[in-house]
Amino acid sequence: MKLNINNYYLKGTEISYCPSPHYDERPNNTKINLLVIHNISLPPRQFGGPFIDQLFTAKLDKNAHPSFSELADLRVSAHLAIRRTGQITQYVSFQKRAWHAGISSFQGRERCNDFSIGIELEGCDDIAYTEIQYQKLIQIITILKQKWSSLTQENIVGHCDIAPGRKTDPGSAFDWKRVQNL
Predict the structure, then answer these.
(1) Where are the alpha helices (DSSP H) in the chain?
(2) pLDDT, tens digit (0-9, with 9 covering 90-100), for 80-93
(3) Where exactly are the structural domains of the chain?
(4) Which of 48, 63, 66, 136 would you call most buried, defined as having the most Cβ atoms within 10 angstroms of its Cβ?
(5) pLDDT in tens, 37-57
(6) Is 120 a catalytic residue?
(7) Catalytic residue of the set 25, 110, 120, 131
(8) Do 79 and 67 meet the contact criterion of CB atoms below 8 Å apart?
(9) What is the CATH number of domain 4-180?
(10) pTM of the model
């Protein structure tokens, strides 16, 4: 698979677009220098289905599953999600601020959404991610690092690293060595 960045969007035959209304402008003159890896499964510990797209596009039916009652009104998004099958969906342009990090801090800087890219992996903390997810994630990181040289290995972190005590993803099942050996 060959990915390109064109106008800050990843282009490729395996990329689908599902525009989220949950984004806004980054602050003026903000340099992108953080990549945050998350995980998501809706319902919890279940994979596949339309619910991630629905959550990120404000269309999640709170009656579709008992766990959705507290999620349906959230205004959240990510730049990308990588399904367990390797399918990549883009929700927000990289030049915009996606709402993925919440209350967060990295190296003393608050509001990580301002200067970060958020990538969701379909999964949960304690179930191994798929080989194809790692392959796609590594390809995406490689391209993003070419576009933004300020994205260094030290600036690729988990949600747990920018919101400790509040978030645990991508969890113990995530193989950081695979990402660190780029």
Answers:
(1) 51-56, 131-147, 159-162, 176-180
(2) 999 999 999 999 99
(3) 4-180
(4) 136
(5) 999 999 999 999 999 999 999
(6) yes
(7) 120
(8) no
(9) 3.40.80.10
(10) 0.94
